[in-house]
């Protein structure tokens, strides 16, 4: 973050694994204090870790985890919550790799919970495998305390793929027979936000786009569109803050619109005015 960046203090910010760890297993920051300083946050700044990364980085993290005490060191950064891992479960992968990776995603959830860090599991499985789906349902049924699920929504960019994602989330709620709140990671278009809110008005949205666009010299406009503007480092800092606020405002506006439309309307009863007597 540019040194001039001033972020709202009461907001919860998320970081990805690459913010903290390189592919050689080296930490970019030594402590919770230096991490927040690097992000231009006060020491009381609220942070969450999304344990999502490229296949190379997340595989290296697993490789280094035991001999470098990786999970404990991540837990020491004082995150408000973390997510489970996102080890890839691709349809084209060998079946043994799919099962192994799904188990590792479940395992990272348990590891952080054992360390006392609140953890939100990622919904990540081979959509073509009923066995994978049933394993997810079984896992959720045995963990009644899980009330939130994270979704890598940017993996479902095409319209049909996104519809399939929403179908999967509906099926999961029906099959475990309890309410869930979804955290959609990677959604940055207003039409996608609207699609999700039509199904889940209480959904949470996570996106790096406000910062990415600001660094590229683009301002976020109403409707989550963007326009290029001339910026220097100081102006980039202001643009980061402005883009984050605009993203929040657009999400909140959609939420408010739905709360009004979903509320009960009180019908006006007919009444008569009595004409004043002369």
Largest sheet: 4 strands, parallel
Could you estimate the helical fraction of the residues in percent?
A: 40-55%
What distance lies between the first and last C-alpha atoms, to the nearest angstrom?
A: 76 Å
Estimated share of beta-strand residues: 5-15%
Shape: globular
Strand order of the largest sheet: 1-2-3-4
Structural class: alpha/beta
Q: What is the rounded Rg?
A: 22 Å
Mean pLDDT across all amino acids: 86
Poorly predicted segments: 265-275
Tally of DSSP helical segments: 9
Number of E-state strands: 10
Q: Give the SSE string.
A: EHEHHEHEEHEHEHEHEEH
Q: Can you offer a commentary on this structure?
A:
With 278 residues, the chain is of the alpha/beta class. Among the domains are: 12-146, no CATH class; 208-258, no CATH class. Helices cover 44% and strands 14% of the residues. The protein has 9 helices and 10 strands. The chain has helices at residues 32-38, 55-64, 70-75, 95-114, 130-142, 159-176, 190-199, 209-215, 233-262, and strands at 12-16, 46-50, 81-83, 119-120, 122-123, 148-152, 181-185, 204-206, 218-221, 225-228. The strands form 3 sheets. The chain has a 4-stranded parallel β-sheet, covered by helices on one side. The chain has a 4-stranded parallel β-sheet with strand order 5-6-7-8, with no helix packed on it. Helix 7 runs parallel beside helix 9 and helix 8 (209-215) runs antiparallel to helix 9 (233-262). The longest helix is centred in the C-terminal third of the chain and has 30 residues, at 233-262. The chain is globular. 26% of the residues are buried.
């Amino acid at each position: 973050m540019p040194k001039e960046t001033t972020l709202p203090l009461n907001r919860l910010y998320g970081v990805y694994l690459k913010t903290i760890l390189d592919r050689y297993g080296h930490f970019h920051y030594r402590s919770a204090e230096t991490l927040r300083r690097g992000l231009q946050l006060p020491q009381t700044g609220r942070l969450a870790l999304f344990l999502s990364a490229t296949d190379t980085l997340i595989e290296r993290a697993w490789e280094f985890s035991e001999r470098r005490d990786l999970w404990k060191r991540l837990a020491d950064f004082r995150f408000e919550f973390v997510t489970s891992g996102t080890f890839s479960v691709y349809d084209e992968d060998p079946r043994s790799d799919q099962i192994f990776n799904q188990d590792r995603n479940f395992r990272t959830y348990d590891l952080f919970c054992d360390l006392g860090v609140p953890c939100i599991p990622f919904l990540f499985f081979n959509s073509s495998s009923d066995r994978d789906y049933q394993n997810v349902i079984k896992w959720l049924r045995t963990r009644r305390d899980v009330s939130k699920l994270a979704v890598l929504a940017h993996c479902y960019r095409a319209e049909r793929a996104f519809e399939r994602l929403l179908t999967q989330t509906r099926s999961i709620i029906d099959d475990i027979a309890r309410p869930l709140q979804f955290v959609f990671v990677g959604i940055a278009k207003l039409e996608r936000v609207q699609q999700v809110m039509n199904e889940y008005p209480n959904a949470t949205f996570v996106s790096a786009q406000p910062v990415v666009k600001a660094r590229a010299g683009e301002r976020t406009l109403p409707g989550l569109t963007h326009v290029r503007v001339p910026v220097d480092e100081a102006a980039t800092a202001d643009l980061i803050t402005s883009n984050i606020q605009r993203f929040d405002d657009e999400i909140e506006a959609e939420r408010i619109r739905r709360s009004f439309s979903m509320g009960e309307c009180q019908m006006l009863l007919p009444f008569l005015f009595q004409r004043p007597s002369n």
